[in-house]
């Protein structure tokens, strides 16, 4: 590091911010590690780097997103998340006011979720070598006895559910970043889903798959699951919840909401006889009131995710190589 | 005794060729034999009189003249037989005989499905014939082939006729070389063959006598006359049918099928009925009546200068082909159709049996499920359709019949590849994304699949893989290389990539417009080493070698390679795929690109197209363009047509089928082509790579000014066509003379526009250039697989590997 005292001063300030907001006892001890007793059971661990522009958006900011994203990745195994670790990479000259907002938001999100940040690290890079701030978070959690949730467990006949509307986060980010000025403000759905997951597991322990459809959206995530499980999926366009304002924005922008990122939604796959009970449990939770059954797992050597369209046809919802590039001649 | 062997190559198997040889050889007094083998047909003859060469000559002359209708003789090679064993064999022949094929070596070509021949039609109409009113009558010269085949060798056991053992009468016909039904695999009669029945949408079978009809088909005809919508199972799929002169029935059909704008095809009993609605030339009549019996696009009577000609069009429901100057018409091609239309002096709508966007149904259960909601009644039969084969579509343009959709009656007939491709290894080209076909290369021939359709559709994508497996089996091809489009997300390219990885085969990427160019070359027999031509490839879009979207391309090249010497100016498509569906987005993008929207709005405030655009969320679209956010740049000609259509307010706000706006523009322009002078101007710029760029900016000034002057829209549409044709030709002439090129090839979906195609072609011919156009395969993406195959074969032959 060649930026001398500026960087050191900044790191010191950050240390103070963390002490102020993320005041968990393990963190405030000031050690370079957190020490705790592992609870009984199988542990899960997940890491996620958060790089987002803009840093602040309707419904959240990079701080809350960094907490939610990692909690959700841990929770999608069925685990109860226990602790988080956070690593910051800051660009020199990043406004301290913004940093304070981010750390405070992070603390609030962690407190609300009941999953504390227990260890952290900060590095400062030269101006021009970062993009404001990057946050990497790691989470650990413990999976309850008897729960086996994995992306390769979808079976033909299983039912596919989602916990709410698709595409809110991606459209919120895009419209804020590009200042698109839609009539209705679209808010990110960023939230921590572990309590919803706990309620779901309590109602139906035999959930086969859970996954949060983040980057690439519902379409990409279903393709991942179909591939992992070696099955096809049949979904219905009219069953997939999409907010009218998100649908309208997507139409105008020429985006397919099924490929747009979510940060507070999950996909669940469970045996058909348990789908209604699972749906009820999801709807009973505040983060799942708009849950819906969107289709079924089918046998298919091609592993197609196909969608019955509003029009009555059946379209392949493909894995895209890159951006949504027109194929029509 | 002298004897000789005669090798006949071409389409000579499964088409009644051997019985014809047998009949003529006997008539000419020859002794010998005939058989099928891996190369075609082998005839061995010896004259009754030693050295009777005249007898053999006479025989061969008659063989060419009396070649069976579905056969095609490419070459005949004669050579004396010296082998003593063979001579001894022949010496024993007292007669001329047909030998069974050696099954191992036979490359039994599966031929295309053929329309019912005149002899069979006469039989079903003859009350004394045992096939009177029998809907599955066929013979060696007609009937189903590709649609009923499951594998090779092509015999009854491997077709959907396996379920119907022949009765003694049919079996006798089948075995008799003198009979028209000798070795006709689908041979059948009322005693032993498939049956037809009528049922309602709930699945209840209807008794024809309850409808006062002599059989199910007569009952169906009566229901149609009452204004009902029927699903009719035919040769390669289902049709939805109704009375084309009944406005309510046609409107209801459109509503149920959810096909709101795309023209509906018609079927009429005979040419006289068609002449009541369309102008039919002698060539048109021959195309309609030929064994392929395609849908032919014909000019409507009264569409151009009706008053002058004194022609009076007969009434047709307005919804059949709204805003079109042409109608798509076909003649009956199966006995079912002949019987159904017998009493109809007006056409029936015969549109594909599906919901819009889906492939048509082929099996009864599927039909009941899917068509039960669209049709009042279903006319079904128990002969399974194993392969979906849609109706082919043909349009006569620039003096020749040109295929727009190649399916029934044409596929899978192999197309000979040009000289130089004889040694090409077996290849598979996977085709495009929409209007998909794939193409196999074997023995210097290209075998294109029938039109399969849109691979974004899940059913079509499954059919694609099944049909591919069938063709690889039927034609015994084991590909040694695969060719795909460069587009990363085309399903055909995905399948190709997977196959190449699985089988360890080289994967050859062929740029979309280069494939269009190579397709045109192959279609015209352009030899492998005949040198480069100038290709003008105009379409909606294709993935360019530089990762941008192309669609208005001047490529100087041959099968192997190309240089992009010029193109239309790249303009943004704000909202990506939405810009393909909503023409107004392209108008906005074009105006933005031609001086800026604000300037246009200031200059032409209050003008209708400007007002219309002003009501749209242009600020957001402007951001997309400025930020390059889901607003890919494209040199597409299709989008330019869309933009012009949007300026004139024709072609629809949101398009429901491909090419809709361009077709509306062509229909509009057709009446005014000879009233406009030079047409709208284009400018020329130089692009970043030194290539020439055709810039439509000046066109917009002239066009919007004309609108503001109140110029009739048809003249504006015509001035656009003329201007584009002029600009394309002038640029091409400069390029050809600069590069010393004397041949121009035109392809891409935009060249299905007859006005553009004919005016561009004319100016090249005036300038003394040779013009190559697509003929046997479509200029649209249905022809891409042939181009991929030819380009890939060229690369392999020249030792240039890889993508
Ligand atoms: Fe194309
Ligand atoms: Mg993650
Ligand atoms: Zn016949
Ligand atoms: Zn029979």
UniProtKB/TrEMBL annotation, chain B:
Its EC number is 6.2.-.-. Residues 214-409 form the YrdC-like domain. It catalyses: C-terminal L-cysteinyl-[HypE protein] + carbamoyl phosphate + ATP + H2O = C-terminal S-carboxamide-L-cysteinyl-[HypE protein] + AMP + phosphate + diphosphate + H(+); an acyl phosphate + H2O = a carboxylate + phosphate + H(+). Pathway: Protein modification; [NiFe] hydrogenase maturation. One of its GO terms (biological process) is protein maturation. PROSITE patterns: ACYLPHOSPHATASE_1, ACYLPHOSPHATASE_3, YRDC. Gene3D superfamilies: 3.30.110.120, 3.30.420.360, 3.30.420.40, 3.90.870.50. Keywords: Hydrolase, Ligase, Metal-binding, Transferase, Zinc, Zinc-finger. Residues 3-100 form the Acylphosphatase-like domain. The active site is at 18, 36. Pfam families: Acylphosphatase, HypF_C, HypF_C_2, Sua5_yciO_yrdC, zf-HYPF. GO terms for molecular function: acylphosphatase activity; carboxyl- or carbamoyltransferase activity; double-stranded RNA binding; ligase activity; zinc ion binding. Involved in the maturation of [NiFe] hydrogenases. Along with HypE, it catalyzes the synthesis of the CN ligands of the active site iron of [NiFe]-hydrogenases. HypF functions as a carbamoyl transferase using carbamoylphosphate as a substrate and transferring the carboxamido moiety in an ATP-dependent reaction to the thiolate of the C-terminal cysteine of HypE yielding a protein-S-carboxamide. This is Carbamoyltransferase HypF.
């Amino acid at each position: 590091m060649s930026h001398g005292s500026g960087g050191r001063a900044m790191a010191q300030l950050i240390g103070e911010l963390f002490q102020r907001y993320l005041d968990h006892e393990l963190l405030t001890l000031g050690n370079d590690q957190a020490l705790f007793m592992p609870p009984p059971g199988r542990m899960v661990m997940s890491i996620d780097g958060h790089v987002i522009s803009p840093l602040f958006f309707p419904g959240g900011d990079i701080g809350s997103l960094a907490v939610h994203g990692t909690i959700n990745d841990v929770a999608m195994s069925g685990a109860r998340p226990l602790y988080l670790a956070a690593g910051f990479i800051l660009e020199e000259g990043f406004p301290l006011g913004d940093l304070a907002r981010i750390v405070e938001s992070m603390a609030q999100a962690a407190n609300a979720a009941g999953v504390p940040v227990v260890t952290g690290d900060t590095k400062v890079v030269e101006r021009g070598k970062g993009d404001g701030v990057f946050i990497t978070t790691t989470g650990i959690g413990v999976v309850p006895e008897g729960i086996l949730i994995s992306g390769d467990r979808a079976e033909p006949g299983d039912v596919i559910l989602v916990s709410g509307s698709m595409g809110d986060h991606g459209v919120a980010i895009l419209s804020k970043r590009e200042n698109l000025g839609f009539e209705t403000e679209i808010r990110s759905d960023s939230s921590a889903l572990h309590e919803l997951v706990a309620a779901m597991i309590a109602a139906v322990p035999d959930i086969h798959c859970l996954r949060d459809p983040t980057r690439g959206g519902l379409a990409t995530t279903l393709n991942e699951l179909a591939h992992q499980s070696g099955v096809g999926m049949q979904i219905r366009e009219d069953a997939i919840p999409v907010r009218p304002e998100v649908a309208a924005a997507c139409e105008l922008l020429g985006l397919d909401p099924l490929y747009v990122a979510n940060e507070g939604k999950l996909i669940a796959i469970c045996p058909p006889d348990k789908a209604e009970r699972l749906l009820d449990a999801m709807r009973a939770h505040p983060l799942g009131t708009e849950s819906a059954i969107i289709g079924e797992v089918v046998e298919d050597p091609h592993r197609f995710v196909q969608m019955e369209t509003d029009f009555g046809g059946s379209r392949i919802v493909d894995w895209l190589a890159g951006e949504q590039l027109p194929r029509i001649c | 005794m002298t004897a000789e062997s005669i090798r006949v190559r071409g389409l000579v198997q499964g088409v009644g060729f051997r019985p014809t040889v047998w009949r003529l050889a006997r008539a000419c007094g020859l002794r010998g034999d005939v058989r099928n083998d891996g190369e075609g047909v082998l005839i061995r003859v010896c004259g009754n009189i030693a050295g009777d060469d005249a007898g053999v000559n006479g025989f061969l002359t008659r063989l060419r003249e009396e070649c069976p209708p579905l056969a095609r003789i490419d070459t005949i090679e004669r050579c004396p037989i010296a082998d003593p064993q063979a001579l001894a064999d022949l010496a024993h022949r007292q007669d001329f005989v047909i030998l069974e094929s050696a099954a191992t070596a036979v490359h039994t070509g599966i031929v295309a499905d053929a329309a019912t021949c005149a002899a069979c039609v006469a039989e079903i109409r003859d009350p004394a014939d045992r096939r009177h009113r029998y809907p599955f009558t066929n013979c060696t010269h007609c009937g189903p082939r590709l649609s009923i085949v499951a594998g090779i060798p092509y015999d009854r056991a491997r077709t959907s006729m396996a379920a119907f053992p022949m009765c003694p009468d049919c079996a006798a016909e089948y075995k008799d070389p003198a009979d028209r039904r000798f070795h006709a695999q689908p041979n059948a009669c009322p005693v032993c063959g498939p049956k037809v029945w009528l049922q309602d949408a709930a699945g209840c079978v209807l008794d024809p006598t309850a409808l006062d009809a002599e059989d199910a088909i007569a009952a169906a005809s009566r229901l149609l006359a009452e204004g009902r919508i029927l699903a009719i199972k035919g040769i390669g799929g289902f049709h939805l049918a109704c009375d084309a002169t009944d406005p309510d029935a046609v409107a209801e059909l459109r509503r149920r099928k959810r096909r709101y704008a795309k023209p509906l095809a018609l079927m009429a009993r005979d040419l006289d009925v068609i002449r009541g609605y369309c102008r039919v030339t002698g060539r048109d009549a021959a195309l309609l009546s030929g064994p392929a019996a395609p849908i032919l696009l014909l000019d409507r009577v009264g569409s151009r200068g009706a008053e002058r000609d004194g022609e009076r069009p007969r009434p047709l429901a307005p919804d059949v082909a709204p805003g079109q100057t042409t109608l798509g018409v076909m003649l009956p091609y199966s006995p079912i159709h002949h019987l159904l239309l017998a009493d109809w002096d007006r056409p029936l709508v015969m549109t594909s049996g599906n919901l819009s966007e889906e492939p048509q149904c082929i099996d009864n259960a599927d039909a009941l499920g899917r068509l039960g909601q669209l049709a009042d009644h279903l006319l079904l039969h128990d002969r399974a359709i194993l392969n979906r084969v849609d109706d082919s579509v043909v349009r006569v343009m620039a003096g020749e019949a040109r295929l727009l959709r190649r399916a029934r009656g044409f596929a899978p007939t192999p197309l000979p590849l040009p000289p130089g491709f004889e040694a090409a290894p077996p290849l598979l080209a996977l085709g495009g994304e929409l209007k998909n076909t794939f193409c196999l290369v074997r023995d210097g021939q290209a075998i294109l699949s029938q039109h399969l359709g849109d691979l974004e559709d899940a059913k079509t994508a499954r059919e694609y893989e099944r049909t591919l497996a069938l063709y690889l089996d039927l034609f015994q091809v084991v590909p040694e290389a695969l060719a795909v489009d460069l587009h990363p997300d085309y399903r055909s390219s995905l399948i190709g990539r997977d196959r190449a990885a699985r089988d360890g085969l080289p994967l050859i990427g062929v740029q979309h417009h280069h494939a269009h160019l190579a397709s045109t070359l192959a279609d015209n027999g352009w030899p492998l080493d005949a040198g480069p031509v100038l290709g003008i490839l105009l379409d909606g879009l294709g993935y360019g070698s530089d990762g941008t979207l192309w669609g208005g391309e001047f490529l100087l090249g041959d099968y192997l390679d190309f240089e992009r010497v010029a193109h239309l100016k790249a303009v943004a498509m704000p909202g990506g795929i939405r810009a393909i569906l909503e023409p107004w987005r392209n108008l906005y993008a074009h105006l933005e690109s031609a001086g800026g929207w604000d300037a246009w709005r200031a200059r032409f405030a209050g003008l209708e197209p400007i007002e219309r655009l002003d009501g749209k969320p242009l600020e957001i679209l402007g951001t997309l363009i400025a930020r390059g956010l889901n607003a890919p740049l494209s040199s597409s000609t299709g989008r330019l047509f869309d933009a012009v259509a949007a300026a004139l307010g024709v072609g629809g706000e949101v398009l429901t089928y491909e090419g809709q706006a361009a077709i509306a523009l062509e229909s509009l322009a057709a009446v005014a082509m000879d009233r406009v002078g030079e047409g709208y101007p284009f400018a020329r710029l130089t692009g970043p790579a030194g290539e020439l760029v055709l810039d439509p900016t000046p066109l917009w000034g002239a066009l919007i000014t004309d609108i503001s002057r109140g110029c009739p829209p048809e003249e504006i549409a015509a001035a656009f066509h003329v201007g584009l044709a002029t600009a394309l030709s002038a640029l091409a002439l400069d390029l050809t003379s600069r590069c010393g090129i004397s041949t121009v090839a035109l392809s891409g979906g935009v060249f299905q526009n007859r006005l553009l195609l004919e005016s561009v072609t004319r100016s090249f011919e005036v300038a003394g250039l040779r013009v190559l156009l697509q003929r046997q395969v479509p200029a649209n993406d249905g022809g891409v697989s042939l181009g991929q195959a030819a380009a890939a074969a060229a690369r392999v032959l020249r030792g240039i590997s890889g993508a």
